[in-house]
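lol ok so funny story. i was supposed to be doing the assay writeup but got distracted and ended up predicting the structure for this chain instead. priorities right. anyway since i did it might as well share w the group, maybe its usefull for someone
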Amino acid sequence: MPPSPFDRLHAPLRIFTDVKRFMPHKPTASARPRPCKLRATYFSALTLSLPLQGCALHGAPSREIFGAYFPLWLLGGVIGLFAALLAHRISVAMRWTQIVPLQLSVCLSIGITVAVLVWLAGTGQLL
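and the output, tada:
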């Protein structure tokens, strides 16, 4: 029987149906983890994750703004960003940019300081 023109088209697809080519051996039952090892792994993962609970019992500190709750760290970051921008604008207006070196570092440190102070004031740990 002569090969048909369709045999040429289906020949590349034959490699995907040949399972033995891609999987020459069968997986054995010993390759699976034993239940006692699996339990020990879950127990150790649970034990190690307990100190990572963080604010799970009381919830993260948040503030209500326009009817929605915002996390306090996000509010502190936004206020710190505005403080850094304000510090930059003040230094440009006073012409301190030519005197003070590393303006980016100075404005960044001012913004981070304000953000941390907002965080500490919001959580009640400042005073």
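The chain has a mean pLDDT of 76. The two ends are 94 Å apart (CA to CA).
back to the writeup now i swear
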